[in-house]
């Protein structure tokens, strides 16, 4: 499944309005139309990315919506429209990290942890496999989990993962290899 959808060829190029072109002569950046198309095309994949980093649907939806709001607010800084999706992915990863930090702080302040509740509509077998994978992913180091999510769920290349996380290509390979080995051991262990 391709992650980046090409822009439709039939659409005319964005012509900046007089107001846009008069603002200090700056480039227009990502247009609202392009951001809207990106939203329609990639909302679900970004939601899935957040779901692999977080554990509840409501938080995932909040993170993805906040990411689109932030990119919309900063769209003039995204000079090349083809980089909008990468900017959105990075924002989703960063907002997911922040959400996890807030949860950890909240759990420290609570006297009892909240129980995890599965949704009723998910099948029992799929739920068991999903729970096992989530437990295994949670057992990984943070960087290993991030590399595996970006590499295999978001279909990013190792170089893209390195750029997104701000680490070297060798580190991406090492974290990925160690993460897969740890997942293999965790998934084969009896529950």
Automatic annotation (TrEMBL):
Q: Show the Gene3D superfamilies listed in the entry.
A: 1.10.1740.10, Winged helix-like DNA-binding domain superfamily/Winged helix DNA-binding domain
Q: Which UniProt keywords apply?
A: DNA-binding, Sigma factor, Transcription, Transcription regulation
Tell me which InterPro entries the record gives: RNA_pol_sigma-70-like, RNA_pol_sigma-70_dom, RNA_pol_sigma-E_actinobac, RNA_pol_sigma70_r2, RNA_pol_sigma70_r4_t2, RNA_pol_sigma_r2, RNA_pol_sigma_r3/r4-like, WH-like_DNA-bd_sf
Specify the RNA polymerase sigma-70 region domain's residue ranges: 39-103
Against SUPFAM superfamilies, the record matches this protein to: Sigma2 domain of RNA polymerase sigma factors, Sigma3 and sigma4 domains of RNA polymerase sigma factors
Q: Which domain of life is it from?
A: Bacteria
Reply yes or no: does the keyword Transcription regulation apply: yes
Q: Which Pfam families match?
A: Sigma70_r2, Sigma70_r4_2
- Give start and end of each RNA polymerase sigma factor 70 region 4 type domain: 131-183
Please give the residue ranges the record annotates as the region Disordered: 1-26
Q: Which family does it belong to?
A: Belongs to the sigma-70 factor family. ECF subfamily.
NCBIfam families per UniProt: SigE-fam_strep, sigma70-ECF
Name under which the protein is recorded: SigE family RNA polymerase sigma factor
Q: Which organism is it from?
A: Streptomyces zingiberis
